[in-house]
What does this fold into?
Amino acid sequence: MWVRIYAVLRKELKQLSRDKMTFGMVIMIPLVQLLLFGYAINTDARHIPTGLVNLSHSSESRALISDLEASQSIDFQQQYSDIHSAQQAIVKGEVRAVLYLPRDFGSRLVQHPNYYSGQKAATQAFTRPVGQWLVDGSDTVITSTIKALQNMPLQSVGNRKVEQAVTSFAVVPFFNPEQRTVVNIVPGLVAVILTMTMILFTSAAIVREREQGNMEFLINTPIRSIELMVGKIIPYVLVGLLQVGIILGIGHWVFSVPLRGGLSSLLLAALLFIFASLTLGLVISTLAKTQLQAMQMTIFILLPSILLSGFMFPYEAMPSLAQWIAECLPATHFMRMIRAIVLRDAMLAELLKDSIWLIAFTLCGLFIASRRFRKKLG
Amino acid sequence: MSQLAIEAKGLSKQFGQQIAVNQLDLSIPKGCIYGFLGPNGCGKSTSIRLLTGLLEATSGEVRILGEPLKGNEESLKRRLGYMTQKFSLYDTLSVKENLQFVASIYGFTGQRARQRIDELLSLYDLTAQSKQYAGSMSGGQKQRLALACATLHSPELLFLDEPTSAVDPENRREFWERLFDLSAAGTSILVSTHYMDEAERCHALAILEKGHKRADGSPQDLMAQLPASVIELSGNALREVKQRLIQHSSVLSAAQVGAYLRVLVKDNQPAPIDFIQRLCPDHQVALTRPNLEDVFVVSTGGRHVG
It folds into this structure.
C-alpha cells in the first residue's frame, strides 16, 4: 500500500515540478495577490474627487474649504457656477460629491453652535446647516466618509482656538491601534488563496488523469482509489503550507502584520483548513468531467468564500440567511481561526467550535468523495 | 473450462436507451490472439471494458482465466494487462519514470523493478529514449512504451484496444511481431481493430456490428465458408455498371478496387459468373478468392463498405 502511495506521490511531485505554469502559480498567486490586496484594499476612503459650488466667496468659506482639504479625505477638483451643473457632474461621474455653500454662508456660520465653543452657543432657533453635501450615495463607503463631516467643528474657520471636545466614549482599538486595513486583510488572504489553490489544484489534478485517459489505465491496475487519492493529495498539502508561509512571511516583513499566535496553533489550523479544502476538491473531481468544469465549480465555491466569509465585510453585518450560508463554507471558520491566532494570540483550544467544524467537514467530504469515486471504478 | 482465457455468455451493456453490446457470446482459448473487427462505434471498446471489469455489464456472465469476473475484478487485475486506445501514460514523465511508476503500482521494488525495467527497455527498443519525455516521442515509440507498461507484470491475458490506430504501417508490422512473441510465450491476447490486414493475422476473430457478433472463427474458415461468391469485373464505365448491379437483390455489394469492380453475389444464385455476365455482357468477368473484407461485408450486410 505505502509503495503505491509513494509512487503516486513521487509522480505527482515530478509532474508538478515540470509543469512550469502551475508551479509558477503556486508561488505567484499568493505573492501577487498579497502585494496587490495589501496595497489596494483600504476601507478608509481618501481623496474623494469632489466638486464645489461656492456662492459665498467669503474668506470664511475659503477657510472652510482649506480645512476640509487638509483632512485628506476629499479633493476639490472642480468648481461649478450653480447647483444644476454640479448635479450633472455627479451623474457623469466627474465627481463623487459636491459641497454647496449658499450665498448667506457667512450669516449661517456665525449662528451655528459649532462655530462657538459649547457654552456660548447661539440660540438654537436660528441655526441652520452652513452648507449642503450632495453625495453619490450608491457607494456607501464614500457616503459614510462624507457623513463623518456632518458634525465637523467650525471654530477654526473663524481663526478661533479649537477647544478640545470631550467625547461621550473613549475608544481603545486593541490589536490594531493604527487601524490599518492590511492587518486584517493579510490573515484573511491566507484563507482566500488557500480556498482557491487547494480546491482547484486537487480537482484539476484528478480530473486531468481522467481527461487525458490515464485513469482508464490506472483503474486496470491493482491500485486502490484511496491510495490514489492520498498520493495525489499529499503534495498539495505541502503546497498549501508553502503558501501560508509566503503570505504570512511577506505580510510580516512588507506590511508589518504582527504574528502574535503560536506557530503550532497556526500550523494545526492551517492543516485543518487545507484538508477541508482538499476534500472539497476531491468531491468536485468526482463531479467534473473536464478541467474546465472543475474550474467553474471552484469559482462557484470561491466567490462566496471571498464575499461571505468575513474577508471583505464583517460577518456580523450580514443577514442571518447569508450567515447560514457562510457557516457552511470552510473559509468562514478558518477566517475566524487565523485572525484569532495571528492577531489576537488565541490558542487552538479556544477555537474548538471552528476546529471541530473543519474536521467534520473533512470527514464528510472524504466519505462522499470515496463513495462517488468507487462508483466511477465500477 | 480452464483452457479458455475468456468465456462470455449473453454479455450485454445498455447505456440509457442505447444497447452498446447485445448478447455477446465468446469462448476464446488460452494462448491465442483473438481479434475484434468492426467499424467505429460497433461496441469493440465497450466489450473490452466489460471484459476487463472496467464497466459493469447490464446482464450476462463472464469468466476470465477460469474465474468468474464478478467479485474477482481486483484479484484478476494482477493477471490482466490493458493497453488503452488513447495513450494513457504521463507525457511529462520520461520513459523510465513511466515504467518505474507502473512497476511500483504493481508492487515491483528495488532490484526486481530495475531488472524488469531494463529488460523491457531493451526488449521494446527504448533504451536510447529512456530519459526522453513520453509526450515528445513518436507514435510508434509511444505505442511500444504503452505495450511495455501493459506487460510489465507479465499478464496472462492482454487486452489491446485499437493499439495501432496512431502508428504507421512499418511500425504496425513490427508491433504485430511483438504480439506474436508474447503469444508464443503463452500470453492470451484480445485485440480490437478496424484494419482488415490486422484482423487477418489473428488466430481467430469476431466481427462486431452495432453491438452484435455477426461472425466468429479463424480468418481462413471465415473466408472459406463465405456464403457468397466474389467476382471481379473489368472493363469500361465501372461506376455506371456498379450503380446498375447494386440494384439487383442478389448482389450484396459492388466496390471498385483499382481497375476492377469487386462484386459479391449471394449464394442463392447457383451460377454467379453467368448471372453477372448476363447483366454486363461487354465486361470481363472472373471468379476470385474471397478475402476478409468480403467476409466483413457479407456479415454486416454490406452496410459499411462500397
